[in-house]
Amino acid sequence: MVLSKNSGGHRGMQESMYSVIALVFILVACVELCDAAAAIDVYRLIQYDMSGSAYGSRFAVLNHHAASLHFPPGADLSRAVLIIPLRELNITFVREYINQKKPLGGLLFLLPDIFSFENGGNKQVHEKEKLKNLLAELEQLLIHANIPYPVYFAFENDEIDTVLADIKKNDAIGQPATATTGGYKLVIPTPEPKKVASPTITNIQGWLSGLKVDGDTNQLPTIAIVASYDTFGAAPALSVGSDSNGSGVVALLEIARLFSLLYSNPKTRGRYNLLFGLTSGGPYNYNGTQKWLRSFDQRLRESIDYAICLNSIGSWDNELWIHVSKPPENAYIKQIFEGFSNVAEELHIKVGLKHKKINISDPRVAWEHEQFSRLRVTAATLSEISTAPELLQGTGGLFDSRQFVNETAITRGVKLVAESLARHIYGHQGKNVQIFADGGSLAVNPAYIQSWLDLLSQTPRVAPFLSKNDPFVMALQKELADHTDEVNMQHEVLEGVFTFYDSTSARLNIYQVASVTFDLLLLLVLGSYLIVLFSFLVITTRGLDDLISLFRRPPSRKVKTA
């Protein structure tokens, strides 16, 4: 009985001891006491390879303390994430850090709400333009650099502004956030990015058949109206490209709607076929346009009288440019330019002509019409941009948001193109005839333009992240089907020198972390309290001898046997 009693006593002691140990482990696990200060959506800088060279942000996981631009001189930023509002951005400082590969834990850029999908903000026009130009410069710096740490974008809000104000205050007094001092910690527990396997591009083609006279065996000539709909930018999840090339897509859809009304009546159907093309792969040397054109049979290709490509026509004031590859003296080019110039004069618009000779051996394709020119098809691009953009420049980046696009400019562009095409089709060149006059049944519809522009301005369209059955792609196909006789979709693999990586957006958790000194002090106080409490309970329930026996060396096996 005594043995049983002692055994039960020891078992009770052990259970009490185990309970205390468990409490200590829980306490240690919770040493880094923190409060969740904020949780916000963030958008990662694009990660891609071009011709085997790495570009963009090469990492996605974030777990570092936060810092501001007010950090003290000589501060170690190798384990810190710099939070930089765009309005406070020093582009020289960022360029120096990136180009000199200075150690940094990460970058978080805060964008004003004028660049968000939902809110346009109330900034003055000059301030908007200043921020737009600054963001464009930052974007070009980031997408052409190899950055060995996570880079994210987020939109300003009250939560992040409060956190940043607190971080600035601590940095200004020489107490930046560290493991020793505590502060704010930024955590993004996301998987490391993986390559996007076989990214697809989708071209959408609509066809309006012209009127053919009985007995006429000759194929009708064709006019092609084309616009590239995908984008490329520093943050794929934010690259909506309202102007480049959302404006061109909207214009094409409205032109298709207008001519579908004309062609629905045999009496007003022209003796030209109209081919509408919404192409993908635009930022990558118009890869999709090339594949689309090569899918044509020779007869169709030879029937194309000319093609007009629409690119960035949503933020111009009074002048547009027609870009061509053939010399301005070419008879077909002269005819196209004169047709547009006559209509432009009546609409009080200036139209200029820009000639850029192409080099067949050069893989760089600056304008969409150049893909037609390479196949000896007469073509031109209508754009507000006067000079050919560089690769991955002006392709619908972060700064290309709804606030910088004017639907009135698109309406005027639609009218210019539609009237010029109609006069060519119906033989009214040189005549002051307005087929799409305001107030008539064939008038350009501003509400239609605005609704589609709003949709495009809320839809990121970076091709590698758009599946062939993406709702937006299907919406384009359905809309073109409503205005044309026949619609086809072409799915191709994006080929070329580009490789893309996923993980384009995440959720950032911001924690307010206590300092290590506070943690150790807290652990010491609570640990001491638990030891005193345990000792008190043992003494009051079992006596002092039992407490001492816990720390007494147990008898050896030899003694027990004796």
UniProtKB/TrEMBL annotation:
InterPro entries membership: EF_Hand_1_Ca_BS (IPR018247), Nicalin (IPR016574)
Domain of life: Eukaryota
Subcellular location: Endoplasmic reticulum membrane
One annotated GO biological process: regulation of signal transduction
GO cellular component: endoplasmic reticulum membrane
Keywords from the named record: Endoplasmic reticulum, Glycoprotein, Membrane, Signal, Transmembrane, Transmembrane helix
TM region positions: 520-544
Lineage, uppermost ranks: Eukaryota, Viridiplantae, Streptophyta, Embryophyta, Tracheophyta
CDD domains on file: M28_nicalin_like (cd03882)
Protein name: Nicalin
Record bears the keyword Methyltransferase: no
Family membership noted in the UniProt record: Belongs to the nicastrin family.
Mode of membrane association: Single-pass membrane protein
